[in-house]
Amino acid sequence: MGRGALALERYPQAETYASQTLMLAAPQIKGRSVDSDDHLATAIGAGYEVQALALAGQGHKAQATAVLRRALQTYGNTSIANRLHKNLNLLILGGQPAPPLKSTEYFGAPPASAAQLKGTPQLLFFWAHWCVDCKGEGPIIARLRSEFTELTIIAPTQRYGYAERGEEATPPAELAYIKNVWQRYYPGLQGISVPVSKSNFTVYGSSTTPTLVLIDRKGKIAYYHPGAASYEELRAEIEKVTRG
Questions:
Q1: 170-221: per-residue pLDDT in tens?
Q2: What is the fold of 2-92?
Q3: In CATH, which superfamily holds the domain spanning 106-243?
Q4: Which CA distances in Å does 6 have to 84, 205, 209, 236?
Q5: Edge-first strand listing for the sheet containing 106-108
Q6: Span between the terminal Cα atoms of the chain, in Å
Q7: Where are the beta strands (DSSP E) in the chain?
């Protein structure tokens, strides 16, 4: 209900639903971890998300970021941390220096150094081997890759502990599966660098896949978008960073 009110921009109502959710969850979590119950974790994560975005929608950005920072102090080592980071990034990352990517493990092109990327606009495409929306975003990014040759595209991903049909997989087996998915479903993006690291997802708060991040020529984040984006929307944002 809170998400619905948020989507309709009924911010006070959304904030009320979020506050009620967190209030009802508080006694349930007493004396146990938020991760002891998946439904509880989802409720608390969504509660803070809606509360913060409702505050921001009413022009209270400082209060919104304070809500998320306090939540991270409590839940920073739990399953909802990435979700909290994602929403904090939505509010504060714009115009900030882009955190460097960890690229010790990768496939595709060797990762470019900071010196090589200096002055170059970049698009980070955070994706997952199981993600249907990522596969749908692939052709859009491939088309834009052909239109903006000065744009460097990097596709960070990570392991999830399983491969095809959700079967458990060893790290080497899952990496082989990730490479197979990349070759099969992303033909227009072959040859770009694909760093494989959970830490990149943590630093960028990428709990949603895809997550799209545009970095301008000065190395600052110009666009942060959890979820799929249309060709028209993404093209307009890329034009901004390539003109700069």
A1: 999 999 999 999 999 999 999 999 999 999 998 888 888 999 999 999 999 9
A2: 1.25.40
A3: Glutaredoxin (3.40.30.10)
A4: 17, 21, 21, 25
A5: 106-108, 193-195, 152-154, 122-126, 211-215, 221-226
A6: 41
A7: 106-108, 122-126, 152-154, 193-195, 211-215, 221-226
The one-letter code for the residue type at 215 is I
| Side-chain half-sphere exposure of 5, counting CA atoms within 13 A | 20
Reduced 3-state DSSP string for 69-103? HHHHHHHCCCCCHHHHHHHHHHHHCCCCECCCCCC
Closest CA to 71 of 57, 82, 59: 82
Phi, psi (degrees; rounded to nearest 5) at 55: -65, -45
Distance of alpha carbon 110 from alpha carbon 47, whole angstroms = 41
Fold: same for 2-92 and 106-243:
no
pLDDT digits (tens, 9 = 90+) for 6-29: 999 999 999 999 999 999 999 988
Closest listed residue to residue 6, CA positions, set 53, 67, 66: 53
* Domain coordinates in residue numbering, the chain: 2-92, 106-243
pTM for the predicted model, two decimal places: 0.80
Residue type at 212 in one-letter notation: L
For 119-220, where are the E strands, in sequence order? 122-126, 152-154, 193-195, 211-215
